[in-house]
Please model this.
Amino acid sequence: MRKPLIAGNWKLHKTIPEALDLIEALKKDLADKTDIEIVVAPVFTALVPVAQAVKSSNIALAAQNCYCENSGAFTGEVSPALLKDAGCSHVIVGHSERRQLFGENDELINRKLKAVLAEDLIPIFCIGETLEEREKDEMMDVLKRQVTVGLNGLSETEMFKVVVAYEPVWAIGTGKVASTDQAQEAHAFVRGLLAGLFSTPVAEQVRILYGGSVKPDNVDGLMAQTDIDGTLVGGASLKAADFIRIARFEKM
Ligand SMILES: O=C(CO)COP(=O)(O)O
Model:
């Protein structure tokens, strides 16, 4: 059984007081939710105060990015070791905004994944095709490349810790959610890739989250799909009521 994981990627939003307000609301209304894992990913500057606020709660803390070295002359970067020191248990790696706006490629993402795992943190490894790639019928090739190169060299033991997030770029921040069939098809394809690259147990146990315009009114249909094990939520994770409803998805 794969335990559902509902994660909020706050992106570049929320001051420390705003982040703490949101956390208080989530702690209050989601305290009883032990049947799922809840993760929030604030901006770097809010990580330490949010880590204090979520201590002894059922909410885990993720960073939105990291570098692949733990120390050295890398101005402006933050390492997995320092994220752990700040109280993170998870790190989002390879988000499409990192790929598109900051030039991250599959090789760098692979190095980041290894660095995250070396610190015993859980990577939330993002993949997904652009609209242009989907229209050219390249979705499967793109996912295959991202998964093959991104996860290259990981051991089976490491793979059991990885969380994959399928986020079709055309669905991110656009209000255009993938249909449940489109999402299920991509998730099943990725699970098949994991079986081929690693093993059946890895494919059966690794959680694959869906991300891209997840909202209270579409989460139930998405979570009803066999291969969708959770959601990575952007915009709707910034509003307590929306994220709470998403975390309280109804089993259909
Ligand atoms: O990028 C996302 C989460 O990482 C999805 O963002 P939206 O939910 O705002 O579409």
Residues 9, 95, 167, 172-173, 211-214, 232-236 surround 1,3-dihydroxyacetonephosphate (CB under 6 Å).
